[in-house]
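Retro notes
What went well: the complex prediction finally ran end to end.
Inputs used:
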Amino acid sequence: MLFHVRMEVRIPHDMDAEVKADIVAREKAFAQEVQRSGRWPHLWRVVGEYANISIFDVESNDALHELLSGLPLFPYMDIAVTPLAKHPSDVNA
Ligand SMILES: O=C(O)CC1=CCC(=O)O1
């Protein structure tokens, strides 16, 4: 199942710099591990925002929730999920 996911990062401005750096480093390592597994085929920065647009390819809603809630930045992100279905005019469908 494919999902379009928008993540807006909202780290508190008063977070300790070392704590922030550790969370961001763990986020990167986790994200790259999931990308290498094939379950996170697209990760794009939204121009001008501390936000990303991602495509996930996972087996279920529950699998996506488990993955997203495992992100180290999860407590500091606003996340919007859009489930995707095949478009009847898609020549690749
Ligand atoms: O910086 C972001 O958009 C948040 C994030 C998601 C995966 C990652 O490595 O950073």
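What we learned: Strands lie at 2-9, 42-45, 51-57, 77-84.
What to try next: split runs per interface for comparison.
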